[in-house]
Amino acid sequence: MTESGAYRQAYDAAAADPDAFWLDAARAIDWDVAPTIALDSSNAPFHRWFPDGRLNTCVNALDRHVAAGAGDRTALIHDSAMTGARVSFTYAELLDRVSRFAGALAARGVGAGDRVVLYMPMIPEAVVAMLACARLGAVHSVVFGGFAAKELAARIDDADPVAIVTATGGLEPGRTVDYVTPVAAALAMSTSSPRAVFLTRRPEIDIEAPGDWLDFHRELDAAAPADPVSVAATDPLYILYTSGTTGKPKGVVRDNGGHAVALRWSMTNIYDVGPGQVMWTASDVGWVVGHSYIVYGPLLAGATTVLYEGKPVGTPDAGAFWRVIEEYGVRALFTAPTALRAVRKVDPEAALLRDHDVSSLETLFVAGERLDPDTFAWASRILDRPVVDHWWQTETGWAICANLRGLEPMPLKSGSPTVPVPGFHVGIVDGSGAEVPAGTEGNIVLELPLPPGTLTGLWQDDDRFLSSYLAAFDGYYLTGDSGYVDEDGYVYVLGRTDDVINVAGHRLSTGSIEAVVGAHPAVAECAVIGIHDETKGQRPSAYVVLKTGVDIDDDTLRSELVAAVREDIGAVATFRDVTVVQALPKTRSGKILRKTMRQMVDGDEVVVPSTIEDASVLDALAALFRA
Ligand code: COA
Ligand code: AMP
């Protein structure tokens, strides 16, 4: 990075005069009422971006490109490795479907500010439904299909939607995942009573659904197209639930204006993808990465986005990534390191890459978990292109740290997502909130206010927003990650400081798994920790103490607990490991020493807290882990 380079200039400009910087960025968005003010801090720490602006996000994603004459440009390509389907939609076609589905939602009473919960596989109807909500000013909340009925019910309870949009099911390698049963079960469990359920009947998945559910396509075909509804920039666009440290998910709220401005800016400056160029984000619409870079980012930029249903391996082989890149001329691929590890495991020399022309690919972006140096070296070698790690969270909605390929590509350093993106002010502090010197690990915090596009709060829970993120260090947002900054200003993110774990790029709470394990009648107490997994990065592992006098063999207990976690949380938890122990290490006040256990399992140096209740428990565990 040069002191006078484009990155430094942009970073300094955003820091010195955020109003001027973000009002300038806001010019890339079409407004109904252009904002004259960038930041409103009158209700700090609840900061708001573009308080006097009005817009519609769907218009910015679709209508304006059609109006500008780009209606024939491809907006969305659906490629299903599961069914063989390959369908593409121009901007004009997507706009037609979205407007009509918005009409169908409106006809069932969905209006501005109403919530709509989506529980969808990776099919175009998911994108259509998200944009249709945005068109009406309604608030979508997409729930990842790997979550079970109880998790879905918790989100329905919290969002209290007017409508649900779902499909008969998803396709996973070797099995069909029924979505109808969990949606019906979640509705039965929930205190909320949505007025309508829209169902996409997939030809491959024929499942009987309740008679009063509406057929997605029949309703869409019959509906009059809905006009876009102008909303305040500060109005919510979506709620996305993510795992916190307790079992209750956090409803991260994203606004319309800040989101549109930030994502549009990121497409040019981070991803270097513009109109007509192809971006493929191999994630799921149920995660933030899918929201931002399968759906909104590419469409806001007038680019072409690929919606891929399939896995990086096994559908049918480890050449899936290379096939899709070749077939659609993908310029930027965005995936998670775990997917690259999965490919490497099956095809270590990337022999399948030789069967494909991937010359269109400029950059491979990864996020969702730390890009380990081995995978970075491997991917860089086989692709001979920049492999760019960038660090972000559901809460931030876009990258906190990145190598900004469009603004000023910088040297890549293994293990680092490079530098803070303009607008983000990264600090590393110790437990007392004091900044630590370069090279020293500490809590990664972000100085307030956060830039546009980041969370405006948690859905109807200001107290939790304050206590989860803002209470630890005055004036800072707590990321929950630890790391350090080197002498060159490069940031290194090492891992979570809380009980959130990251399994195959999916964020999970060990607390929610503990709640399920702890409810088993044989279990007196338990601790679930994230342990290192070669492919998935981490996986949950449960240590359980049985109730006195209980007679259950380990295999039975394990299979009952695995079934319970799958039933209550979902397959996504990837829960398989159960170990029965005599006791768990605790402090004298009864707090389980999960961090110490994690260190022991991972073979790291163990710092034994002085407050431990009974140190001999640790010796017993150490013997167990050594075995
Ligand atoms: N609906 C229903 N079930 C789902 C699902 C969905 N949308 N997605 C995953 N599951 C199920 C899987 O079938 C699997 O079930 P199983 O235990 O019966 O095998 C379980 O949830 C775990 O899935 P996953 O963690 O995806 O493991 P996998 O072995 O199927 O695939 C990877 C492993 C690494 C290939 C895959 O996780 C991947 O591509 N990850 C990319 C990560 C990503 O997209 N992150 C988002 C942020 S970038
Ligand atoms: P999620 O909210 O699901 O996107 O998960 C966010 C968390 O994933 C972060 O707080 C980090 O712990 C981890 N994470 C995401 N991207 C990266 C990255 N590039 N490097 C290290 N950790 C990451």
TrEMBL record:
Molecular function in Gene Ontology: propionate-CoA ligase activity
Domain AMP-binding enzyme C-terminal span(s) in chain numbering: 513-591
Domain of life where this protein originates: Bacteria
Occurrences of domain AMP-dependent synthetase/ligase (ranges): 65-447
Cross-referenced SUPFAM superfamilies: Acetyl-CoA synthetase-like (SSF56801)
Family: Belongs to the ATP-dependent AMP-binding enzyme family.
Protein EC: 6.2.1.17
UniProt keyword annotations, A-Z: Ligase
Domain Acetyl-coenzyme A synthetase N-terminal, chain residue ranges per copy: 7-61
Protein name per Swiss-Prot or TrEMBL: Propionyl-CoA synthetase
